[in-house]
Amino acid sequence: MQVNNEFKPKIVAFCCNWCSYAGADLAGTNRANYPADVKIIRVPCSCRVNPMFILRAFQRGADGVILCGCHPGDCHYTTGNYYARRRMTMLFSMLNYLGIEKERTRVEWVSAAEGAKFAATMNEFVETITKLGENKRLEDLRCKK
Amino acid sequence: MRRIGVFVCHCGTNIASTVDVKAVAETLGKEPAVVFSTDYPYMCSEAGQNIIKEAIKEYKLEGVVVCSCSPRMHEATFRKTVQAAGLNPYLLEVANIREQCSWIHKDKAEATAKAIVLGRAAIAKVQLNAPLIAGESPVVKRALVIGGGIAGIQTALDIADAGYEVDIVEKQPTIGGKMTQIDKTFPTLDCSSCILTPKMVDCAQNEKITIYSYSEVEAVTGFVGNFSVKIRRKARYVDETKCTGCGVCTEKCPVKNVPNEYNLGMNNRHAAYIPFAQAIPNVAVIDAAHCNKFKTGKCGLCEKLCSAGAINYNQQDTIVEEKYGAIVVATGYNPISVDKYDEFAYSQSKDVVTSLEFERILKADGPTEGHLQRMSDGKQPKTIVFVQCVGSRDTSGCGKEYCSKICCMYTAKHAMYCREKYPDTDVYVFYIDVRTPGKNYDEFYRRAVEQYGVHYIKGMVGKVSPKADGTLHVQASDLISNEQLHISADMVVLAAAIEPDKSARPLATMLTASMDTNDFFTEAHAKLRPVESPTAGVFLSGVCQGPKDIPETVAQAGAAASKVIGLLAKDKLSCNPCVAHSNETMCNGCSTCANVCPYGAITYEDKDFSRRKDGSMIRRVATVNEAVCQGCGACTVACPSGAMDLKGFSTGQIMAEVDAICK
């Protein structure tokens, strides 16, 4: 989306309910700022995120997608984040092969106590995506009005 | 298309000051599915909830979107609201426009635009929400308390008092915890043992309480109401049922040079020992790492002397498996190792001690039998320097960033004790701040300063150097008079920071309970649910949740017990209906989902899909046990045929959210 010639990226953040979503809430409680470009989707666990969701986001015009889950070993469901980590490793290498810059996708572990880390991660991610510019390669122009 | 109602909350000014709530309600009101849209200062208030209820009836709403605070805060509240109006509680979505919008953005236009997008995503999702009905699961009417310190003891006693069975698992040979090592308790200066040991005895005598001492939790499976726990009972080489605690083995044991944990290694114990006189259970333990019988095979003196025939060198660890409805964590704390702070010469001089060691010196059953003596030469110290915040409030990365909370008060107690019993002693306390909130706490501290003449000096000790004459040269700064001080002290006491017990981290992993960066257990809500862990059925008692003194610990222990009693009083719990389910017509029975399921909730059965009676269309398909499934969704992504989906977070719902956000 280009407004007043200033690029505002569209960023989708998938956050697991137990750690990262709570971490994002804590960032709010602590009034830690990060850009409004980030929109969070709550999922029960990072392992609920189907690689398809990420492809869909890019197809629909997202410029960056980030997946946040509990730290390895701290998953509420014991092993979910390990599955997520493996799946995303596969997906990201495929995206890279397709020519999607690997910086557009990321997996981060944010615990429920790491509000500051959540905000810092989002600030940094938005900055990276802003530098990269619009995602044109995977965007399905038919989805654009 | 469903008829949706949108309710935008101002949250006073929390949302309304950065989000134009009227504009949000108006814009979302124009969405095709939305038939009603409004805003209100406090949606969670009774009046706000009534607006939702009335709108559901008046506009025949089939889905509700509340744009308000985090769903972690009020999703349950609004679910009850829609249910009261006759709508299925799962036909509700909450758009988080407070924690994840108004509180983090400053620009009103940006925040408003984001709130609209979040609202649209929720509308898109709620279109696809299925009406769900929660199942029920039974509650095992027994509680487990992990840790037998004052927190665990109080929790167990309170639960048992309500008539429920409780098991205490304690890794030490006796219950009692840190409080057994303490001499006196602030601010009343009553004897710690005198108030603790009766409670220990109560635990032992209460028929509802089972104590597993010298035991550790090995594995935890299951969920709220129905946990299954494996407890390892370490071999103590003494038959607990036979031992009378007469102490003959502990007196006659020829190995006398084992550092005594109870006195923090300041004196020695035998290889066969009872931790202290009032230990519960009062049963000896043989320390296999030091016992001659185990090391060389020659000795067996205790076996010969034991008239009860309780000694058994062949005892093995045993595993007890038990079911519990609720688990209370009360793992407590330890003082940090002060080795890193070598400027205080802890490793160089026996007369530099930690506060807990000082406590042992003061206590009648300690290494000096309660006489204030230097550990190096047994002389009575004439000048004592207390150093506060050793490792607490330390942002250098070396110690802990938090305040350990108890040190100011126990140091005032120690200082007062020294001046009371030995009035010719000079006592200096170096502090950053003196923090004494609490009933009668500040009065207590002021007594130390005003009545007992303890020298409180704001400033930090820079260096402690042991001198050849046995004194300790303390170099410190006085921040108020802005001068360097040189004190020749006989003893230095370090108020070491406290940290959660090392067993807490692996336990948290077993319980899937979350922890903060300092390894303290996280509570479900910092203000409103302070004794519950975010993991259902797991409760927190004592310092495992954050630094606390004894009165606070006991209060929290009682609160945790009341929460447990509330849970155990129920016969059935309603389960989370957001569980996986398999579309049998798409499932090809490949077992991929069962392999990734951490709970073993997926089984396979042969189902007949033919309409003929000969059953020629029998296929193997997955079935989800809804009582066991916890709803993580691992199977939904693993399924190669797309047969698995998660109720409440279905592929369609998440895709709809993605589309709405990226629009």
Structural commentary:
The complex is a heterodimer of chains A (145) and B (663). Chain A is built from four helices and six strands. With 145 residues, chain A is an alpha/beta fold. In chain A, helix 1 packs across helix 4 (115-132). Helices cover 28% and strands 24% of the residues of chain B. In chain B, helix 2 crosses helix 3 and helix 6 (150-161) runs parallel beside helix 15 (550-568). The mean pLDDT of chain B is 94. Chains A and B meet through helix 1, strand 4, helix 2 and helix 3 of A and helix 4, helix 5, helix 17 and helix 18 of B.
Secondary structure: elements and pairs:
The complex is a heterodimer of chains A (145) and B (663).
Chain A lengths: L1 E2 L2 E2 L3 E6 L3 H10 L8 E6 L7 H9 L4 E6 L10 H18 L7 E5 L5 H18 L13
Parallel strand pairs in A: 3-4, 3-5, 5-6
Antiparallel strand pairs in A: 1-2
Chain B lengths: L3 E6 L11 H9 L4 E7 L5 H13 L4 E6 L2 H14 L7 E5 L1 H5 L5 H19 L9 E3 L3 E5 L3 H12 L3 E5 L14 E2 L4 E2 H14 L3 E4 L2 E9 L2 E8 L14 H5 L5 E2 L8 E2 L2 E2 L11 E2 L5 H4 L5 H5 L12 E7 L1 E4 L3 E3 L16 E3 H8 L20 E8 L16 H15 L4 E6 L9 H11 L3 E4 L2 E6 L5 E7 L4 E7 L1 E6 L1 E3 L3 H8 L26 E3 L9 H19 L3 E3 L5 E3 L9 H5 L5 E7 L9 E7 L9 H5 L5 E3 L4 H12 L1
Parallel strand pairs in B: 1-2, 1-3, 3-4, 6-7, 6-18, 7-10, 18-29, 20-27, 21-22, 21-27, 22-23
Antiparallel strand pairs in B: 5-30, 8-9, 11-12, 12-17, 13-14, 15-16, 19-28, 24-25, 25-26, 31-34, 32-33
Task: Indicate the proportion of strand residues of chain B.
Answer: 15-25%
Rg over alpha carbons of chain B:
31 Å
Strand line-up of the largest beta sheet of chain B: 10-7-6-18-29
Q: Percentage of helical residues of chain B?
A: 25-40%
The main sheet of chain A comes to: 4 strands, parallel
Tell me which protein chains meet in the greatest interface and how many residues each side has. A-B, 54 and 52 residues
- State the distance separating the first and last CA atoms of chain A: 12 Å
Give the biggest beta sheet of chain B.
5 strands, parallel
What percentage of residues of chain A falls in helices of 4 or more residues? 25-40%
Low-confidence stretches of chain A: none
- In terms of structural class, how would the helical and strand content of chain B be classed? alpha/beta
What best-fitting shape of chain A do the alpha-carbon axes yield?
Answer: globular
Mean pLDDT of chain B, as a whole number? Answer: 94
Structural shape of chain B? globular
Measured on Cα atoms, how large is the radius of gyration of chain A?
15 Å
Mean pLDDT value of chain A: 90
Number of strands of chain B: 34
